[in-house]
């Protein structure tokens, strides 16, 4: 009788059990942090500031910070975008111009803003990317010698162009992705 195969199955199942417990604990932490939006973002900002201090003290890893910046810019653009994307909305508009249609809505009709990337996922992706960049900032392999002012200028140009495109899209389709300037109605409970 060969018991080694049975032992391997036992080890594999205990490893899978450990991974499942770890995954459940991680999900429980995420679930409990969901209602604390301000505290979550303060934690993210502190983590990014610590990462900047690591880059400043190491005097290197500029490719890592550039990659993190581009990723966070992409995530922020997705956060600002409506679920029906720029290209989709423009294609639908072009299709509607070609064919006669009946009016189906009023211009003053309430249209809820549904984000392409929800706030919690944006925060979660920010934390994960910053932690990964933080780990990469301690690995000498990622300390690629580059002339950092070129990366900085390139990042500024990309940020300007993508934000200009996003703002033009907001103006064209008349939406505001933030809710701090919008009216809030209180519900009155009848007794």
UniProtKB/TrEMBL annotation:
GO CC annotations, alphabetized: COPI-coated vesicle; COPII-coated ER to Golgi transport vesicle; endoplasmic reticulum; fungal-type vacuole; Golgi membrane
Protein name: Protein RER1
Transmembrane intervals: 38-56, 62-80, 146-163
Entry function: Involved in the retrieval of endoplasmic reticulum membrane proteins from the early Golgi compartment.
Keyword field: Membrane, Transmembrane, Transmembrane helix
Main localisation: membrane
Provenance organism: Anaeromyces robustus
Domain of life (superkingdom): Eukaryota
Family: Belongs to the RER1 family.
Gene Ontology biological process terms, A to Z: protein retention in ER lumen; retrograde vesicle-mediated transport, Golgi to endoplasmic reticulum
Subcellular localization, as worded in the UniProt entry: Membrane
Membrane topology of this protein: Multi-pass membrane protein
